[in-house]
Design brief:
Elements lengths: L2 H8 L6 H15 L5 H13 L11 H18 L6 E6 L6 H8 L4 E7 L2 H14 L9 E6 L13 E7 L1 H6 L5 H14 E11 L3 H11 L4 E10 L2 E10 L1
Parallel strand pairs: 1-2, 1-4, 2-3, 4-5
Antiparallel strand pairs: 5-7, 6-7
Helix pairs in contact: 1-2, 3-6, 4-5
């Protein structure tokens, strides 16, 4: 996640020469604090004050719904024995991705959206309570849980068919103190991933940097494929991670 992007999201500065220099200074501090829970609590409190219901890193559900549905259907064919398809969104914040999957998928799904910020989780719980979204399949479930994504202790191994990470690993990797947390999150995600499931990381980091990190941090346990995704003229990457 670039300094300029952090600046836009947190500071709201424009692109003048004076504010750009100030933004770079502030954003450097922000990048080194982005693994801290307190930063995100404050961030979402401000979004709450601004009456913002959903906020998405990179892009929203509609921009990647086609790709997600394709991955889901491929996983369903690989594991036809499951009576329900389990999805985990790591570091969900107040994104609309989990809600969109819950509403759109015709198959029975259990969508779990996890975030370390109780402010974000409370905002999404209130939103769902207010709007009462209807799933396409009456057996589908949606829940929001406060959870440290580096410690998924409440989930047993091999539980989830699909795990999503939209910018959470980026946040850890951009912070010096967060790099061990990125590895721990990866290991926990691989632990709770079903043997035939997929772990999708959405990032703006170049494959030349991300793929070697994934392969080395996964200790030879992972197979990684990458797909480029262009949204509103900007390039992003989808890293599809499977257990060997």
């Amino acid at each position: 996640m670039s300094v300029a992007r952090v600046c836009r999201l947190f500071c709201g500065f424009k692109g003048t020469s004076v504010t750009s220099r100030l933004c770079s200074s502030l954003s450097s501090d922000l990048l080194h604090s982005m693994h801290k829970k307190e930063l995100w609590d404050n961030f979402y409190v401000q979004k709450q004050r601004d009456t913002i219901q959903n906020f998405d890193w990179f892009f929203n559900y509609r921009a990647l719904s086609g790709l997600l549905h394709q991955c889901l259907h491929s996983s369903l064919q690989s594991d036809s024995s499951s009576d329900v398809f389990r999805i985990l969104d790591l570091g969900c914040g107040i994104s609309d991705v989990g809600l969109g999957l819950f509403q759109d998928l015709p198959e029975p799904v259990q969508v779990t959206c996890a975030d370390i910020s109780p402010v974000a989780i409370s905002m999404m719980q209130q939103l769902v309570s207010t709007c009462s979204p209807m799933p396409k399949n009456s057996s589908s479930e949606l829940r929001f849980v406060e959870m440290d994504c580096t410690r998924l202790d409440s989930f047993h191994s091999g539980l989830f068919n699909l795990i999503l990470d939209k910018g959470t690993t980026d946040i850890f990797l951009r912070s010096a103190a967060g790099k061990p947390m990125a590895i721990q999150m990866l290991m926990e995600a691989l632990r709770v991933l079903h043997p035939s499931g997929s772990f999708l990381q959405f990032s703006d980091e170049d494959p030349d940097a991300r793929i070697p990190w994934l392969e080395s941090s996964g200790v030879g346990r992972v197979k990684v494929n990458v797909q480029e995704l262009t949204v509103q003229g900007a390039s992003y990457y989808v890293y599809v991670i499977n257990v060997k």
